[in-house]
């Protein structure tokens, strides 16, 4: 009802603005990196499985999820391989459950789900177990869900109830949980120095404040949304950690505005999608740091030469300046490894305000359900 919405027009907007609180709650009580954060939730109050024992033993991670939760898994792969040095595979649950794959019992199967009831993710989990992978962990927003019951280990995000069909605060809290998971695995394997632990914890504790300053970019995003509302197509580019963020930005735009959007790893532009670029194709580039910008420069020029208009979400320490056909929003800071959590927020706001300008049903987009409990 209107009372619950407070000053917001829609749940999606309210949930975007709740992210500093949601991340704060998710990290509350995290005094240090301990694998116990992921211990199983034992039935009837009994102690669950020991995460430390599991983490020490595994040498691979298999992440299974759908939609936005799949993109948080794709982001975590970069963290897990670079910080915890553990080989990580991320699969769309509906693909994994039906394909022949090569199982490895020393794998930790990680499911990610807001609802904990997504049929394909639950079925993919069972499939992995049937293949002999007994170590299972879920990052889930609903403590009483089937997913949490089915997995040995669990981490409950504290996004709170998410009503908007387009997932926002669930995504960023999943990322926070996955970052903690990366550090906990690194620690169990003796790959996390005390200095790094302290530095990462400090960066995590700064997130609520950092998110608040990114939310303050809303007026600039509304300016972009006015342009996007008149387009039929959009292209999102990102690289590295921000490639999944580009994918998530495109998904958000599709879901709530019905604008056809695609995301590519920036380096792929000239391998095909450049052919799509015309003056009617806005191109969003996510978080190019200076090195990426150097590489992107010729691509950007090619986009400009075809009349394509660029919308660049520049990292805090880039020197890129706006010009004709090149719109720049500069992020307030440089965020290091946690950068994806911050860069997704302007993209959520872009989708939201573009939807408002187009007058779509933001919280209940056509043809979609909040949780997909059937195949
Ligand atoms: C996100 O905006 C979507 N509505 C959808 O992709 C969602 O993330 C997906 O269905 C997975 O749901 P889950 O996290 O509850 O498993």
- Which series of helices and strands comes N to C? HHHHEHEHEHEHEHHHHEHEEHEEH
Mean pLDDT: 92
Question: Using only CA atoms, what is the Rg?
Answer: 20 Å
Main sheet: strands, sense, barrel:
5 strands, parallel
The number of helical runs is 15
The coarse overall form would be globular
What is the tally of beta strands?
10
Q: Show unreliable segments.
A: none
Bound molecules: 2-deoxy-2-amino glucitol-6-phosphate
Portion in beta strands: 5-15%
Helicity, in percent? 40-55%
- Class by SSE composition: alpha/beta
**Euclidean distance between termini CA atoms:** 31 Å
Order the strands across the largest sheet as they lie in space. 2-1-3-4-5
Defining traits:
375 residues; binds 2-deoxy-2-amino glucitol-6-phosphate; five-stranded parallel β-sheet; 15% strand; single chain; alpha/beta
Describe, in plain words, how this protein is organized in 3D:
By secondary structure, the protein is of the alpha/beta class. Helix content is 45%, strand content 15%. The protein contains 15 helices and ten strands. The strands form two sheets. Strands 2-1-3-4-5 form a five-stranded parallel sheet, sandwiched between helices. Strand 3 (107-113), helix 7 (119-130) and strand 4 form a beta-alpha-beta unit. Helix 3 (19-27) packs antiparallel against helix 11, helix 5 (67-82) packs parallel to helix 9 and helix 12 (218-228) packs across helix 15 (339-358). It is globular. It starts with a helix and ends in a 17-residue tail after the last helix. The mean pLDDT is 92. Bound molecules: 2-deoxy-2-amino glucitol-6-phosphate. The site of 2-deoxy-2-amino glucitol-6-phosphate has 15 residues, from helix 5.
């Amino acid at each position: 009802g209107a009372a619950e919405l407070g000053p917001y027009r829609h749940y999606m907007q309210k949930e975007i603005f709740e992210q500093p609180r949601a991340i704060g709650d998710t990290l509350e009580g995290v005094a240090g990196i301990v694998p116990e954060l992921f211990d199983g939730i034992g039935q009837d109050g009994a102690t669950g499985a020991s995460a430390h024992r599991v983490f020490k033993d595994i040498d691979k991670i298999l992440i299974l999820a759908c939609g936005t939760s799949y993109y948080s898994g794709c982001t975590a792969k970069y963290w897990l391989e670079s910080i915890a040095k553990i080989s990580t595979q991320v699969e769309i649950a509906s693909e994994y459950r039906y394909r022949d794959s090569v199982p490895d019992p020393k794998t930790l199967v990680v499911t990610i789900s807001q609802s904990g009831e997504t049929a394909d993710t639950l079925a993919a989990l069972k499939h992995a177990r049937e293949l002999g992978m007994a170590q299972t962990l879920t990052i889930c927003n609903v403590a009483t869900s089937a997913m949490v019951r089915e997995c040995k280990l669990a981490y409950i995000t504290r996004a709170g109830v998410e009503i908007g069909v387009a997932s926002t605060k669930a995504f960023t809290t999943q990322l926070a949980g996955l970052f903690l998971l990366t550090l906990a695995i690194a620690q169990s394997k003796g790959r996390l120095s005390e200095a790094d632990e302290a530095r990462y914890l400090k960066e995590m504790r700064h997130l609520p404040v950092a998110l608040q300053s990114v939310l303050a970019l809303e007026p600039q995003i509304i300016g972009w949304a006015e342009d996007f509302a008149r387009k039929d197509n959009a292209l999102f580019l990102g690289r590295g950690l921000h490639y999944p963020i580009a994918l998530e930005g495109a998904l958000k735009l599709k879901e709530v505005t019905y604008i056809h959007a695609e995301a590519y790893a920036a380096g792929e532009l000239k391998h095909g999608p450049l052919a799509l670029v015309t003056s009617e194709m806005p191109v969003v580039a996510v978080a190019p740091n200076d090195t990426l910008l150097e590489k992107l420069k010729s691509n950007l020029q090619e986009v400009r030469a075809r009349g394509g208009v660029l919308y660049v979400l520049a990292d805090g320490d880039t020197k890129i300046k706006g010009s004709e056909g090149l719109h720049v929003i500069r992020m307030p800071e440089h965020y290091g490894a946690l950068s994806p959590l911050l860069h997704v927020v302007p993209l959520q706001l872009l989708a939201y305000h573009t939807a408002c300008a187009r007058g779509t049903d933001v919280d209940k987009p056509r043809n979609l359900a909040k949780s997909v409990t059937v195949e």
